[in-house]
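User: What would this chain look like folded?
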Amino acid sequence: MATRARARRWPTVSPRVEFRACPIRTALGCLGRKWALIVLRDVAFRGDVAFGELLANNRGLTPRVLSLRLRDLREEGLIRRVEDRADRRRVHYRLTVQGRDAVPVLTALIQYSIRYHAPTVFRDRRPRDLGAMFPDPREFLLGRLAPYARAPPARTDR
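Assistant: Here's the prediction, encoded as structure tokens.
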């Protein structure tokens, strides 16, 4: 008789303070719109990026939708529009401090995809580890999650 491997049971995760609204649903109000995360990805990982670059790098993204997503992300405080000092007609987009706080969301999606969607993501179809893909910019990729990840577990016996 074969023994069945016991499935690992994860603990129930509950916040210490009750939420008024679901924080994931709230964040998806902006970030869940079509193309929002892709535009945010390009601004975060490519640095200062112009409208035309965003459009050229994302097949299927229309100028109208890009304009709407850039406006949404600016209104949400994630990116800012910066005019070129030499030529005010040229503008580019840059992350704000709040936008840098959203980078760990992108990092989590990258980690998930390179592990569980490797056949689509990589030519050799092999899963990868985030640390192997991005060994240096850990502080940037994890942002304010880095200290949380390194900290010892909080005491719960209060």
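The chain has two domains: 23-96, 102-150. If you want, I can go into more detail on any region.
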